[in-house]
Design a protein that fits this description.
three-stranded antiparallel β-sheet, 10 helices, 3 strands, hpI Integrase, Chain A, mainly alpha, 43% helix, 2 domains
C-alpha cells in the first residue's frame, strides 16, 4: 500500500468517526504522522518522471513547420508559435486560460486588433498584451516581434485570417477557426508535437511553457544583452535565467574563450 493510499484510508476513518459524532484530533497522533512521512520518503514514486521542458526556438519552428499540414489549421498553429516565441509569451497570454469553454473564450486570449505591423526601421510586428503577470492593472505592454522568418509567416497567417465575429467589441480573436471556435492550448500541442518529433525533439517535453522558454533561450544564444532579454520577457528579476538553455555551440564558444591554465606553460 502506498503512503497516499494510507492517508486516504485514514481520512475515511476520521470521516466515519465524525459521522458518529466522535471528534478526532489527528494532530495528536504523532507516531502515525511520522510513520506516514517515513513511508512517503522511502516509497518510490508511482508516477513516471516528468520530462524536462524543451525550449522551442524560432529555428525549431522553422524546421518543424514543413511537417505541418498546408491548411489554415497548420498555418494558424505555426503563426501562433512564431508569436509565442517571438514575444516570449506564456500560453495563457497567447490563447487565454486553459480549460475555458470554446464557446466562451477567455478575456485574455489575444485579439486581432492587438497585433499590428510597422514598416520601419525594418518590418516588424508590435503586439500589445493586457493583464499579464507583471501588469495586473491591464495598462497594456507592447512587445516587438522582429525576426524576419517570424514576420513573414505572421504576415501570411494574417492574410488568411477568417475574421469571424463573436460579438465582442474588441474584434475577432487572433487565433480562431473559421467557425469562430478559438484555438486552444490543448489542440495546439496536439497538432505540433508530431511535427517536432519528426525533427528529433522529444514531444513529451513540449508544453505551453516551451515557447516562453524558447524565446529567452533563442535570444540568449544569439548573444542578445541580458537587459534586453529581461525586457522582452517582462521579467522584473533574474528569474529569466531559469528559462535559458545554452546551445551546444554557445558552450563550445565559451570554453574556447576561457583563459588558459598558466601551469601548462
Amino acid at each position: 500500500m502506498s503512503a497516499a493510499t494510507a492517508r486516504l484510508y485514514i481520512a475515511g476513518v476520521y470521516h466515519a468517526q465524525e459521522m458518529l459524532g466522535i471528534r478526532v484530533d489527528g494532530s495528536k497522533f504523532r507516531v502515525l504522522a511520522q510513520t506516514l512521512r517515513g513511508a512517503e520518503k522511502q516509497a518510490p514514486s508511482l508516477r513516471p518522471p516528468r520530462p524536462t521542458r524543451v525550449p522551442i526556438t524560432i529555428r525549431d519552428i522553422t524546421d518543424a513547420a514543413v511537417h505541418l499540414p498546408r491548411t489554415y489549421t497548420g498555418i494558424m498553429c505555426v503563426g501562433a508559435m512564431y508569436v509565442a516565441v517571438g514575444a516570449a509569451l506564456r500560453i495563457s497570454e497567447l490563447l487565454g486560460q486553459m480549460g475555458v469553454s470554446p464557446s466562451n473564450a477567455d478575456s485574455r486570449a489575444l485579439r486581432l486588433s492587438q497585433l499590428r505591423e510597422l514598416p520601419s526601421p525594418h518590418p516588424h510586428f508590435v503586439l500589445t498584451i493586457f493583464a499579464h503577470k507583471t501588469d495586473q492593472r491591464g495598462q497594456g505592454t507592447e512587445i516587438v516581434i522582429g525576426h524576419p522568418q517570424a514576420v513573414d509567416h505572421i504576415r501570411m497567417f494574417l492574410a488568411s485570417h477568417p475574421k469571424p465575429s463573436d460579438g465582442d467589441a474588441r474584434g475577432p480573436l487572433l487565433f480562431v477557426f473559421p467557425d469562430g471556435i478559438p484555438l486552444s492550448s490543448r489542440y495546439l500541442l496536439l497538432v505540433i508535437r508530431p511535427a517536432f518529433a519528426s525533427i528529433g525533439i522529444d514531444p513529451r517535453g513540449i508544453s505551453g511553457h516551451s515557447f516562453r522558454k524558447g524565446g529567452a533561450t533563442g535570444l540568449a544564444n544569439a548573444g542578445v544583452d541580458d537587459s534586453l532579454v529581461r525586457a522582452l520577457g517582462r521579467w522584473k528579476s533574474n528569474a529569466y535565467l531559469r528559462y535559458i538553455v545554452p546551445s551546444r555551440s554557445s558552450l563550445i564558444n565559451a570554453t574556447r574563450k576561457s583563459p588558459s591554465d598558466p601551469s601548462l606553460h
